[in-house]
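ok trying again, last paste got cut off:
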Amino acid sequence: MSIEVRQLVVKADLHSASEQIGQDTQPAVDMEAFREEILAECRRMLEQMLEQRRER
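nice, full thing came through this time. structure:
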């Protein structure tokens, strides 16, 4: 069975290294949290697609 992904939205903020020189900041993206967010959205989309298939 194939599953078609119709929409994937990725939001990211990019900062150049020169903007962060001398600043004591945290990384702009927490990679583990970002990964979990993407996986959760993919799961939600797959569940929605499977539910739509069951309704047919």
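cool. The helical segments are 17-20, 31-55. Residues 29-56 form one domain.
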